[in-house]
Amino acid sequence: MQVTASEAAQQLRDVLKNIKTEYARCDNDVKYYDQELADIIHALEFIELDDEMACALSQQLRENRIRRRKAKNEKERLQPLYEVSGGHPHLIYEFERAKWRAERIECIQKRRIYTPRIRTDMQQAFDRVNRRS
User: Fold this and answer.
1) Which end of the chain, N or C, is less surrounded by CB atoms within 10 Å?
2) What does the alpha-carbon distance between residue 73 and residue 68 come to, in Å, rounded to a whole number?
3) Are 11 and 59 in contact (CB under 8 A)?
């Protein structure tokens, strides 16, 4: 499957945008789970708990740590890509611009017709080809 220049530019732009979005989501998730952890620990510290409530908080603590670890691991995996894209803040815009330029070139090329300069006797043959395009 062949990819056009404008499609490639769009895909690169989308990938960069998704990396930034996903990294920010993971970062927010880690912060959220850190704050939730503080709430659970404070509940353990300050609230009189029966066995059932202590068990429920223990399960919530376990689930919090599992979700936080998952978000943190994903953030770590995205870190190298995020740093590359972060070092070039205008990269998404540049790919958008490259996509627009590639589409413009493709459009011009589709409308291009050939007119003979010397061999004008071939004009009718070229006209037939130009009508088919």
Assistant:
1) N
2) 8
3) no
